[in-house]
Amino acid sequence: MSFTTSRRVVITGLGVLAPNGIGKEAFWQACLAGRSGIRQISRFDASTLPTRIAGEIPDFNPEALGLTPEECIHLDRSTQLAIAAANLALQDAHLINALTEEERDRTGVFMGAAMASIEEGESLWVQLTNGGTQPLGAITEDIWFSDSLFLNNASAAAIAAHHQLHGPSTVISTGCSAGADAIGQAFWAIQEGQAERMLAGGTDSSISYTGINVFSIMGALSTRNEDPQRASRPYDAGRDGFVMAEGAGVLLLEERNLALARGAHIYAELVSFTSNSNAYHMTALPADGAPLQQLLRRALAEADITPAQLDYINSHGSSTPPNEVAETMAYKAVFGEQAYRIPISATKSMIGHTQGAAGAIEAIVTALVIQEQVLPPTINQELADPQCDLDYVANEARRSAVNIALTHSSGFGGVNSALILKRVD
Amino acid sequence: MAHHSRRRVVITGLGVVAPNGLGKGAFWHATQAGRPGIRPIQRFPTDNLPLRVAGEVNDFAVEDFVDRKLANRTDRMTHFAFAAIQEALSDARLVLAQEHPQRVGAVIANTQGGIEYALHQIVALHTRGPRAMSVYTAIAWLQVANVGQTSIRFGLQGYCKTPVNDAVSGLDALGLAFRAIARGAADVLITGGCEALLNPYTLLVWTKRGHCAVGDDPRMYRPFDRRAAGLVPAEGAGICIVEEYEHARQRGAHIYAELIGYGQTNDAHGLLPPSSQGKYYSRAMCLAMQEGSITSKDIAYVSLDGRALPSSDRGEAEALRSTFGTDLEQLPVSVPRTMLGHSHAAAGALDTITALLALQHNLIPPTINCEELEPSYGLNLVRDEARPLSQPVVLLGGRGVGGANAVMAIRKGA
Fold first, then answer.
1. Looking at CB atoms within 10 Å, which of A293, B56, B136, B375 has the fewest?
2. Which positions ≥6 away from A82 have C-beta within 8 Å?
3. Burial of A131 by CB count in 10 Å (0-12 exposed, 13-18 middle, 19+ buried)?
4. Domain containing residue B174
């Protein structure tokens, strides 16, 4: 029953825009230094909301990152972030404007997004209805909106257009697992021969009145407004909800022989993609993390490795009280004694929860860990939660030998996905 | 192409929520007779809107499919999905309690999310403040709500995905399910699309963008007509039970058809309606046909995208010509969704269901409203009346804003 193929898939380019750094180098240095990108919200007036902090990208200059003047004017922010991340990934792989027509025909784009055009959709709606007080239709003259409004596949389509990529393209919108799912599906597409190269990742930018309040009203967000950099604290006893953030991450995945033939730098090989569903609750895992247990077991089986071979986990770690308990229980149930040995870190402690981009940015961190043999920390570990007693690489980066690493995501709607990456000799 | 072990994938059950019929019986009865479901919009006032007709689902009783508590926490898109899933499971005679829950999942496409629910809540937020917003807003709104609620309701612990790809989303859902089952990642997937995008806001944005027709003529969705002026939007859901062949055979399931090939490409021409160039759409057709080892002689009809914009229609005709050459004159093509309107993420699934019923009843359903077929397209378009069908394969084409081209090949029986 298990799928076999001779085609292997490697990661050869990384592009990232995160609240604590733009571009692979700045982002990685910020992560190693444990630098938080969480700050007071500036994108809208949040003064009436219980949560007034988020992970905003402070100085995003689309033009400097290779977007055309048309893209700068006609696309919304999340689509612009996606194009910028794709540009960075291709640059990193030394393939920007370098693919032949034949190669571009066999290169596709899969992106993850959870929130899509919420920010622009809300502001235009408010304008058209005079703050929600008038029926729509009274004000219709001279309205302007982006080309991407309500076009929730815009990120993949815009990247394909920018780089003239004619292979398969789609957006996967499985909530907070979307980025990991897009990468996993792209991995499968190359394995199965539907493409030779794929740009894959995720994007989201929805720091707006509605984008924040939909989660605020559920009690899902941290309210540590007075201390933003310490608000996202996965595993720490003082955690009180996730911190909304914006960002984009794109990886270039490449069929291994093609990458070897062109002498490409290979960060890591992608060896398995596994995905399941909680069938439990729209916003929660069962306390014992049973679905996550099943996911991890299958991921190890598909990658044909034992817990003793697993050297690092980049976790979902959203800073949500029940999530990290369930995660920790699942690690112990699946890895046994090894659970205490395997270092785990949560990138969301530094950048918050970038929604559809999270799984992609975390895959980028995992690839960098394998290359650099350094583990970025989980920051804000101050007061231990007795239910979370594993090695979360607290507060300080450290060197560690990493040959095989796993990253996993869980989302609203109950989709869990895991990717396993392996060092290339 | 890689050499790999590949499992066969079949469709064993159907569920339909369409503007011209709720349930596969009513839907087929209307569709084979060319009976449209595009009418003046009933659910909200259209006085100030440039478009006043649509493919609206009017006789839908939510309480028949979703209990009241859940209905209040979910959007109309999810209600449609639940109705179609209920019918599809029963049509497939699939008893989920007998299945391994980790081997069963769902792939349900959607483009606009639960926008009606969300707009109500945004109004509440802006007029009455943060606490007036429903706690269920996020989970009713996000596209993932459909697979999330489905997996909870039916206990699906396997592979679940939500493709969002404009008008090809529904075909993409079938494509993802096809690949996932073929490679062994699941045995049974509840697959299709749902869409409930008929609200004043979406219609205003789309008409301003020129992506759909304007006016109040219920017959104005006329692809390949020389007067073509855009599509008419619609809502609905289509769900197929997609299953591994041996699994279906062992439980004695009725097999409508086998999924035999899928091709997907992108025109990469920007966030615009389908391009006037057919090159990459033709490549998607060829990929699907090669994978399914079929030639034009096997094809009963090609179900077309029929965007009903002159440039997009020209691109589609060009793709057909470069794929089929002189065989195109003989090859029947049709756009049965002219009867429904374009239900975006549901469309590819409804087109597929139409084709499965067409193969079962040996009839090609017609394209309506195309009274002045543009002769330079060179199409053998099945117009106004159903035509007998004899070959075993249907090719289903779709194109989206943003350049995606998707083509699925299905073969009757297995």
1. B375
2. A111, A155, A156, A158, A159, A201, A203, A248, A250
3. exposed
4. 3-250
The reply to whether A353 belongs to the active site is yes
The last residue of a domain, from among B182, B217, B250: B250
Looking at the 3D structure of chain B, how many domains does it have?
2
Q: Tell which of B128, B135, B143, B188 to mutate to test the A interface (max A CBs under 10 Å).
A: B143
- Which pLDDT belongs to residue A1? 45
* CATH number of the domain encompassing residue B406: 3.40.47.10
Beta strands, E only, B19-157: 21-22, 38-40, 53-55, 104-109
Q: Which domains does chain A have, with CATH numbers?
A: 9-261 (3.40.47.10), 271-422 (3.40.47.10)
Residues 293-322 of B with CB under 8 A from A: none
Residue B69 sits at the chain A interface (C-beta within 8 Å): no
| Per-residue pLDDT tens over the stretch A70-95 | 999 999 999 999 999 999 999 999 99
Active site residue A265: no
Give yes or no: residues B161 and B30 share one domain. yes
CA-nearest residue to B176 within chain A is A185
* Closest residue of chain B to A417, computed from CA coordinates: B159
